[in-house]
Amino acid sequence: MKGTVMTAFASKGVRDEHVAVPLPAVPSVARLSFDNGPELVTLRPQPELTDLLEARFGMPLPLVWAADANVHIAYPAGTRLLRRSHPSLLTLNPAVPWALDVHGGAAHLDAQLTGLDVRSVTFHSGAAHVRLVLDRPARARVSRLAAVEDLRVERPAGVPVRVGFARAATNLRLDDQWYGAVSGGLTQATHDGDAPGYQMIEAGGADTVTVVAA
Question: How far apart are the C-alpha atoms of 162 and 43, rounded to whole Å?
Answer without folding.
Answer: 24
